[in-house]
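Standup notes
- DV: blocked on the single-chain target, sequence here:
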Amino acid sequence: MRAHDWAGTPLGVPERWPQSLRTAVGLTLSGAFPTALLWGQDFTPLFNDACLDMIGERHAGTLGRGLPRSWPELWAVFGPQFQGVRRGETFRFTDQRLPLSPRGGTQEAYVTLGFSPVHDESGAVGGVLVTVLDTTTEVHARRQLQEQRIELEARSRSLALIEQFVQAPTADRTAGALIRHLQQLLLEYLPAGHMAYYERSGGGWHVRSLVSAGGADDQSGSGHDTLPHDTAHLRIPLETGEPHYPGRPDGPAQANPHAAMLPLRWASEVRGIFGFVADGPDALTPRHRNILEAAVRSLGLALGREHREGEARADANAALLASRSRLHFALEAAGLGAWELDTRTQVATRTLRHDEIFGYPQGHPAWTYQTFLNHVLPEDRAEVDRKYSAALERGDTWDFQCRIRRVDGEVRWIWARGQTMDGGDGASNHVLGLIQDVTGPRLAEANIAELNTHLEMRVRERTRALKDANDELEAFAYSVSHDLRTPLRHIAGFTQLLHKHLGHTTDPKAARYLAVVQDAVQRMDRLLEAMLNLSRTAQLPLRTGPVDLNHLTEEARAALATETDGRPVQWQIGPLPQVTGDPTMLRQVLVNLLSNALKYSSKQDTALIELWAEEQPDSWKVVVRDNGVGFDPRYAERLFGVFQRLHRQDDFEGTGVGLANVRRIVVRHGGEVSATARPGEGATFSFTLPKLP
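- DV (later): unblocked, structure below
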């Protein structure tokens, strides 16, 4: 903002901006969060530094140029709203996707935006204030959680479909019917496309079932859908027994964006190939691949069980139990508990992981729906029961999060999802579902909020303590310096009385002792006076207004006239600007700096004192330079500390408080001080002051 050349923009140079624009820009720049101001008829953008991290490389080409021209894609999205703000309306957009990549990355950005009008001097709307809260992390976290839930739902429904096929024999209980039903189910969770199931027959591959997003199309036995046996995308999964994603030279480890070929294995061999091809540009994501692989793997297990059951009932029952064990193992490995509730008896069968979540590591002897409700906290119980009743009534899914109290008294968060199952009479008499302990993510959110609150409290407490300590220190310094002057005056007074009393009888040694005492008293008085001035500087309120530095410089030189009597001093003073500040305090700054320059150049034949000003974007830099003794630049920071001196008292008198007072005054004006020098080559002191608005 400061470095930008505003002369070539519709707004012109900042010195000519209207007060309303200056005020709005000041508020924009001081904001801790990303904030932008769109000003004028062409919506010229101005940003604060917090915006840089979001808009990145777009900043250089956008600043100071009308938004419709410099950022047309953003104008296309929000142009009508910006025009609405010009009519006095306000807008808010939550988790809005922006056409940019934050921090130069590839991840899309989401923000919560606020558009509000900014009025000019005439009362009309002169600009649009845009506040931005980056919610990209939260949006992607919610999206990731949603994808995980979708994947769990797809797996649950696939398992439910396969389990229903295995446990509930019907007239349509064939492998082909199950494959078609599973294809139709999986298409609900995949990009638009079609699924085909291939089996080997003779010397080639035949399409046994083809289902597209528009409906099922049975291609069984159609000779024109026969493919050669060595067709690559079918041969590879047959030979490797692993999923194949065509188009990738490195095989199963990499995913093709649009296709998948998965072997359907049972009875120790690959019996068919389960294929999917997307119709459009949407690519397969890791979630899609996980759903496909889990479903086909479960389908193979189920068909394998059915195949063995055809050979022998006993072997089929054993295979079913083994498959369930493997399924339960997979759920346990994922930290999921499985359960099935008979809605007629309200009795549930569960995996051990389910009972462990509720605090029963050895399992619970008899679990009912009421047992579950008793564990749910009273505050959440009514909502959980309402969702359960609604799911049964509509034959829908039962999805919820709630808090439970384990048997050991610990409170935990759980997520559960159940799918109602038709019992054959039109009523939902079974609910099959999954459960997961989600206390970790929920507690992490709560801990972050609590930590933020605690940090804010600590900052406020430390700020208050520092202010109290500073006030006490200033009061102590004032009290000490003020109270010490009374005994000091007594010493000075009685020393003078003693000198008068002794008169001409004073021997030289006694006279020298009295002179040393008087000199020490005077030096101590100067130190106390300096401490009082330093204390007053911190306590006096600033009375700011326009200050002419040329006038103040003349006053400072007049005050230092006694220090230049009889000395050759060459003054080189350039034109000085008007600034904003307290004239009394700024006069003290100039007096101290010019006095220092005169003092440390006193050993030169001719003292050269230079004073000039340099313009900066939002301030003036005032520089004082002399040709005196200089100092070691390694100790420059010590110059501005109280009682810090870089030269001996015998060489140059001083209290070591003047420069500390200079820094305190300049800092109170919002400026900075600095000093540079080399021994024997003079010294340069500078300070900054805000420009006159």
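- Follow-up: The two ends are 17 Å apart (CA to CA).
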